[in-house]
Structure formats: C-alpha cells, structure tokens
Amino acid sequence: MTITRFAPSPTGHIHVGNLRTALFNYLIARKAGGTFILRLDDTDQERSKQEYVDGIKRDLDWLGLHWDREERQSLRLDRYRAEAEALKASGRLYEVFETPTELDLKRKKQLNMGKPPVYDRTGLHLSDADRDRLRTEGREGYWRFLLEQERIEWTDGILGDISIDAASVSDPVLIRADGQVLYTFASSVDDTDMGVTDIVRGSDHVTNTATQIQIIRAIGGTPPSFAHHSLLTGAKGEELSKRIGALSLKDLRENGVAPEALISLMARLGSGVPVELATLDELAAAFDLGQFGASPTKFDAEDLWPLTRERNQALPLEAVRDRIVALGVPGDQVERFWRVASQNITRLEDLDGWWQIFSQGAEPQIDPEDADFIAQAMTLLPPPPYSDATWGEWTAKVKEVTGRKGKSLFMPLRKAVTGQAHGPEMADVMPLLQVVQARG
Q: Helix, strand, coil proportions of the chain in percent (round to 5)?
C-alpha cells in the first residue's frame, strides 16, 4: 500500500511552499488508493503551539486535503530514545562537545586550506576520561550520527539519479544537549515505523535525504521512494522567502481566494501542464511527478484570481444562499440577486458591495459635462419599487426629453445609479434597487 505523509512543524502558519509538499503527497496517496498521514513534527516544545496545530488542520480542511491518520512526534519521545540507545550501543551515535564558536573556527580553517567544511570527528575519538573532563569543565554533550563514508545513491522521482558522497557531508547532529531529538532522526524513525513508502518534499532537503537513507538503514528500515520538487520563487524569479508571511494559507483564505483555485494552480505549477480549474479527484487521477522539472518554479499570487473568479461565478445558488440571506437580501429577491451579481464578482465577498449598492444606493459618478443631464434624467425616474421594464421605460423617456442616445445616454445613467462604469445589465439591476442616491 502507498503511504505518504505531510509533516509540518506547528511553529507558525503554513504557506504556499508547504502546501506544494502537502498537496503532492496527498495526490500520490489518493491516486494509489493509499494512506495520507498528517504528522505534526512538534518535538520543539518551546516553539510548537496548539494554535498552529489548529491552524494547520483548518487550512488543510479548507482545501479538502483530509488526512487518514494523525500522528504527533511529541507522543513518540520514548520511541526515539529507544532507537537512540540502540544506535549508541552499535557505535553509530557518538557524543561531541564542540561549541558553535569552535565549529565555526574549524570550518573557516578548512575552507582556508581548500578543504570542504566537514566535521572532523574529534568527538568520535574521545575517551570516557575525556568526556568526564569536558563535563567537569561545564561542557554539554550532544550526539552525532556516524555516516558510513560511501556514496549514497537513489533515483529521485523528479530529479532523477542522485549520488552524494557521504564523506562530503558532516555527521549530522541528531540529539541536542538538552535532549531534544532533531528532525533528521525523529523523521527517519517515524517514516520507518509508519511504513511510509513515498516522500515528496522541497529540493532544499536533498542532503537531508542522503543522511536519512543511512539512518533508516541503520535502524533496520527500508528507505522509501524520494522526490524533491523545485522551490518556488516570486513572479520575477526573486526569493519567495522574504514575502512568505503574506502568502500563508490563512491570509490567502481570508483574502477570498477560492480553495479550488489554489489547489488547481499548485498541482500543475511547474509541470508544463496547462493550469485549469479542477477537483482534487481530477487532479489525483492525472498526477504524475515525472511532469515536473528541477528548475525553480515561479509563483504569482495574481494567477489565483482568474481561477477564483471562474469557480465563484459557477457556484449554484444553494452554495451561496445562506451568505446572501445573511446580507439582508429579502427571500423573494435572493435568486434574482445571485443571477444579477454572480457574473460580476471575483471574491464571494464582492457580493457585499453589490448588495450595499442595491439596498443603500451608490455614490454616483457624474462627469461635470453630464451634471445637468443627470439632474434632468433623475426627475423622470419614478420612485421604487422598480420592475424589469423600468430601465427601458426610463431611458426611452430620457432619450425623448434630452435627445441623447447610445453610449452618451446609457453610460452616464449607469454611473449615476450604480457608481460604476461596468456591471450587470441595468434592466436586471433596477428591480433590486431600493434607493437611488442620485435622486437627491
């Protein structure tokens, strides 16, 4: 069975970059009829907060990315400790004591000598007496994983054949001095225990993958299939990380982006397949990692609005009836209001503005050269309620009295009544109008 996972750290709100990872793993599981796990990587107890856990779940629910299982790393600490003790006993996990300053000096010296800045394994050769002495001096020990210095190879689902020389990589720190288990280790244990078969994540994790393959093998597991998608950039190729706060799913949702628009764009972006509005089932059926490339992928949030508009304008009345009623639209006008306003919105929140115009009147737009014309025309407009025939009857009378016709007749009247140069057919608008501000 195919088993995938999305493993966010609940230390903040998830953003479009995180979504790409979550969506790819979700689509792989759904296409194969497998299992999609939401795993909360919350071993950092200081930064992990329940409000972010709730936010992650709310964002995924909003998008329809429903998980089959939920796991929390904070509930598995005993499991990590047990595997850590086994690795210590086998000699694959060793204690080190260098401070960040000392490590930085070592790296600089290696670079000056033209050598790669790789940890020199000083801690591996410490005796028990050496470690006792360092602790007496106030040093705190932490733990590194002993990499086998060989080539680590795998066929990546997006990048193709990958080969990394483990000798060019520092032995990774797996456990901090305060006992906190780090991502590289906890994730490897979880992926093994949970039977994860496929992992898709960002290309910035390629080196992590190399070390995790050895960790998984060291604890008796079989490495899953890995794929690393390209990282997102801004529309002009700029780093997205500086703007990522504005691209959180929470903010996109609150700004009115439709969930179908977001998943349709993110599922196809960088694949060469045209982006079009689609359901999750449709996206899963056609999903193929082989369509994606390694080059950075440009993301422009403006691309979400045409898709959002298409989705919202196609909604059936029943999907928005409660929202329309909540605006105060009378029951006998709900269907007409949706028919008139629906093709003139992008966000659903735009309905609010249309009802405000219909119910409270608009601030009229009157060009100076049209002021006298509008004043005269308004004397010819009867008081509400209006009917389907009102617009035609009114404009015919205004044309007869003023001699205006065509655009010079209709556009000034539209702008005076609705405050806008564009919008629904005025014959459809008039029966919804409860007041026309320009009468005054």
A: 55, 10, 35
Report whether 86 contacts 48 (CB < 8 A). Answer: no
Q: How far apart are CA 381 and CA 439, in angstroms?
A: 8
pTM recorded for the entire structure: 0.91
Residue among 394, 398, 400, 382 nearest 426 (CA): 394
Q: What is the pLDDT of residue 246?
A: 62
Q: What is the pLDDT of residues 377-397, one digit of tens each?
A: 999 999 989 999 999 999 999
Pairing of strands 3-6, 35-40: parallel
- The owner of tokens 């996206």 is 283
CB 202 within 8 A of CB 17: yes
Handedness of CA 356, 358, 359, 361 (dihedral sign): positive
The C-alpha atoms of residue 394 and residue 295 are separated, in whole angstroms, by 60
- Among 203, 253, 266, which Cα is nearest to 16's? 266
How far is 260 from 279, CA to CA, in rounded Å? 7
Task: List C-alpha distances in Å: 139 to 97, 100, 129, 144, 201.
Answer: 6, 12, 14, 16, 36
**Secondary structure (3-state) at 349:** coil
* Exposure class string for 351-365: b at 16+ Cβ within 10 A, else e: bebbbebbbebbebb
pLDDT of residue 439: 45
Which residue bears the tokens 């979700």?
26
Residues of the chain with pLDDT under 50: 439-440
Dihedral of the CA atoms 132, 138, 139, 142 (nearest 10)?
A: 80
**In the prediction, which pLDDT does 440 show?**
41
Mean pLDDT score of the chain, rounded to an integer?
Answer: 94
Backbone angles phi, psi at 302, to 5 degrees: -65, -25
Residue 244, pLDDT score: 56
Largest pairwise CA distance in the chain: 107
Task: Retrieve residue 428's tokens.
Answer: 């459809």
CA angle 255, 260, 262 (to 5 degrees): 60
What tokens appear for 362 in the block? 């608009």
Q: Say how far apart CA 19 and CA 232 lie, in whole Å.
A: 11
pLDDT of residue 247: 85
- pLDDT for 239 equals 79
The pLDDT value given to residue 245: 58
CB distance 194 to 37 below 8 Å? yes
Question: What are the DSSP calls for 38-50, one per residue?
Answer: EEE----TTT--H
